[in-house]
Specification:
single chain, alpha/beta, Rossmann fold, six-stranded mixed β-sheet, 16 helices
Length: 375
């Protein structure tokens, strides 16, 4: 508990008034967290197990590294779900990205995690040729302007949070030699798939804070209104996550199911209306494949037909590549909340962050990567 919620630093002999002030803050947070944990224990029913799923890699990171599961009631299960966009990016898109990067007339740009994601053709870093790592879509614009003699392709992945800045550069205008290979996914759609899967058996959702800042908390109303499943938006500090869990349990106990929001300082009911309008201007909902999960109708975003001149799939006539299963890897099962990373026979044995066999071990938002590093 001491190191779990930030109090450990106060035990390291830190000197000075700044250290004392910080320790007082951390002690206050720890005491508040302990109070919430006690309240959670009083809300958990004794006669059955409750399964709450977090749908955010950053949430899982906080939960795992804080040791939160170890201080919660045994019959309260906090399950990591599909909160890692790198983990569900189709193998086909990765192979197409590798192919593009091997063209002499192309520079492929994408986020760092995508460089190492394995496929049957290898990774972009291992098998690619002309590629650059970026941290922002604006860097893709800069690279395209710096190399006017090349065709720059931005391999853009992620949920609503990263879709918005990609749409933003399209709104402000991008160079003629820059195109987009879109591998964006919609969070509410995959959550509905999980609700319908009786094998998952979710009693409540902790909704992702970053995504909710774009979609708004109202995006999750479908789960309380149609499925009777409490869904609460939470932030990324352990205390705020505990509040979210507490609110879900309160709703379950009282039978008053609704959409909750304990991250109201950042997330509004309507979300970022301007960002959603810009996304809708350039992207359309499409039927796409999720790695390890399969084909899900209306769960992805592709550039609209009127922007085909910016769509790398159209420009380079890219084809869908059949996905190959990784022997022994259960990343798809883990993403769906049907197994923990420790259930995989490859986990910590041959699959590590340095030698990832599956995508869940690559990204810092992947459950396998998080569990490995958190011990």
């Amino acid at each position: 508990m001491k190191s779990s919620f930030g109090i450990g630093a106060c035990l390291s002999g830190r000197q000075g008034w700044r250290g004392i002030f910080q320790c007082n803050i951390e002690s206050y947070k720890l005491n508040k967290a302990q109070d919430i944990i006690k309240h959670i224990a009083s809300l958990v029913p004794k006669d059955r197990k409750i399964r709450i799923m977090n749908v955010c890699g950053s949430h899982e990171h906080t939960i795992a590294f804080s040791g939160m599961r170890s201080v919660l009631p045994e019959n309260l299960e906090i399950v990591p779900g599909p909160g890692c966009p790198v983990c569900v990016c189709p193998e086909s898109d990765i192979i197409n990205a590798i192919t593009l990067s091997n063209r002499d007339d192309v520079i492929l740009v994408t986020y760092g995690d995508m460089m190492r994601v394995p496929s049957k053709e290898g990774s972009i870093r291992a098998q690619g040729k002309n590629y650059r790592m970026i941290t922002s879509p604006l860097e893709a614009v800069s690279i395209a302007k710096t190399h006017p003699d090349k065709k720059t392709v931005f391999f853009s992945i992620g949920f609503e949070t990263t879709t918005a800045p990609t749409a933003a550069i399209l709104e402000t205008g991008i160079p003629d030699n820059l195109s987009i290979l879109s591998s964006h996914r919609l969070t509410p759609t995959i959550m509905e798939i999980l609700v319908r899967d009786t094998e998952v058996g979710v009693d409540g959702f902790i909704a992702p804070g970053h995504v909710s800042a774009i979609t708004g908390s109202k995006a999750w109303n479908v789960f309380s209104e149609q499925y009777g499943i409490p869904t609460v938006v939470a932030g990324f500090e352990a205390g705020n996550l505990l509040l979210g869990i507490s609110e879900i349990l309160r709703q379950l106990k009282e039978g008053a199911i609704e959409t909750g929001n304990v991250y109201a300082g950042v997330v509004k009911p309507e979300g970022n209306v301007q960002a959603r309008e810009i996304i809708d201007k350039f992207f359309r909902v499409s039927d796409v494949n999720w790695r390890g999960i399969g084909h899900i109708p209306e769960s992805g975003l592709e550039l609209r037909d009127r922007h085909a001149d910016k769509n790398a799939r159209e420009i380079f006539a890219l084809k869908e590549v059949k996905e190959a299963k990784i022997p022994g890897c259960i990343c798809g099962t883990i993403v769906l909340g049907k197994a923990y990373p420790s259930a995989c026979k490859l986990f910590k044995r041959v699959c590590t962050p340095k030698t990832p066999k599956g995508p869940c071990m690559v990204s810092m938002e992947g459950s396998c990567n998080i569990w490995y590093k958190a011990g």
